[in-house]
């Protein structure tokens, strides 16, 4: 039973990693845009140390609503805690944004898990082809990781 809980926790943790637009290096002389987005994630398949999530990002302005996909790997570090590494891609009407996320998670019970971490935006297409930046992500779940609600705060250039 304990093993299943850790795997579920890992799945949940990884789901919250890839949410909104992400980036890395600042463009020289570029306008800085601060953005707060929400992300609703749904785990796909059986809980295990790696998998995928699909979700719905919602951001203000040019991004708007979109579709999120991430692949992740969970590394348990103890009972009810660990780290998640993910690669994500968000699809919007005007282009895509891709990046990486790294999160830590802690479970107060097998059903209630909190994830916190950082994002790095590594590129995009269309309107977002020059997007770079970074951000933070915080996710919670109350159903053991099947569904996660996240808030992503990003600082971006290249828009």
Secondary structure: elements and pairs:
Layout (H helix, E strand, L loop, with lengths): L1 H14 L17 E12 L5 E9 L8 E12 L2 E12 L2 E13 L5 E12 L7 E10 L5 E11 L2
Query: pLDDT average, as an integer?
Result: 83
Which bin fits the share of residues in helices?
Answer: under 10%
Strand order, largest beta sheet? 1-2-3-4-5-6-7-8
What's the CATH superfamily, by name? SO1590-like
Quote the beta fraction. Answer: over 45%
DSSP E strands, number: 8
Helix run count: 1
Please tell me about this protein's structure.
By secondary structure, the protein is mainly β. It has a single domain, classed as SO1590-like (AOC barrel-like, Beta Barrel). It has one helix and eight strands. The chain has one helix at residues 2-15; strands at residues 33-44, 50-58, 67-78, 81-92, 95-107, 113-124, 132-141, 147-157. An eight-stranded antiparallel barrel has the order 1-2-3-4-5-6-7-8. Strand 1 (33-44) and strand 2 form a beta hairpin. It is elongated. Mean pLDDT is 83; it is low at 1-29.
Could you name the key traits of this structure?
159 residues; mainly beta; AOC barrel-like; eight-stranded antiparallel beta barrel; elongated; disordered N terminus
In short:
With 159 residues, the protein is mainly beta. Helices cover 9% and strands 57% of the residues.
């Amino acid at each position: 039973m304990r093993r299943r809980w850790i795997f579920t926790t890992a799945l949940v943790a990884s789901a919250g990693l890839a949410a909104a637009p992400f980036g890395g290096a600042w463009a020289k002389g570029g306008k800085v845009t601060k953005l707060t987005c929400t992300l609703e994630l749904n785990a796909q398949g059986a809980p295990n140390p790696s998998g995928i999530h699909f979700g719905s990002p919602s951001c203000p302005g040019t991004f708007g609503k979109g579709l999120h996909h991430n692949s992740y790997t969970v590394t348990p570090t103890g009972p009810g805690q660990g780290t998640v590494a993910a690669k994500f891609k968000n699809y919007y009407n005007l282009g895509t944004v891709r990046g990486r996320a790294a999160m830590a998670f802690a479970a107060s019970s097998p059903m209630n898990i909190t994830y916190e971490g950082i994002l790095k935006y590594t590129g995009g297409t269309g309107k977002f082809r020059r997007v770079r930046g970074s951000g933070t992500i915080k996710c919670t779940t109350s159903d053991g990781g099947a569904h996660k609600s996240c808030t992503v705060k990003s600082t971006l250039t290249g828009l």
